[in-house]
Amino acid sequence: MTSVPSPEPPIPPENSPPGPFITQHTALILLTALVIGLIVAGLTFLNGTPTAGAVLAGALSAGGSVPVLRTLIR
User: Fold this and answer.
1) What is the pLDDT confidence band of residue 1, given thresholds at 50, 70 and 90?
2) pLDDT (tens digit, 9 = 90+) per residue, 6-49?
């Protein structure tokens, strides 16, 4: 039985620029979710709900919209 050494991973160049912090796709999804959350929070507050309830409604709608937006926006 012959043992074959595993290949070493390639060494990246030292002067290579780092990748982006977040991709454009992620930024678009998060920005859209933020807008949805702000709209829901504003409408909930204008409906007469206390501020804490409006913030909670906006945060829940923004968080809930991220998976849906991820599948819709490709």
Assistant:
1) low
2) 788 777 677 777 888 999 999 999 999 999 999 999 999 999 99
In angstroms, the Cα distances linking 21 to 6, 8, 33 are: 32, 27, 19
Distance CA 9, CA 6 (A): 9
Give the CA distances from residue 67 to residues 30, 39, 45, 52, 58, in Å, rounded to whole numbers and listed in that order. Answer: 10, 18, 25, 24, 16
pTM across the whole model? 0.74
Q: State the Cα–Cα distance between residues 34 and 44, nearest whole angstrom.
A: 15
Paired tokens of 17: 């620029």
- CA dist 8 and 26 (Å) reads 32
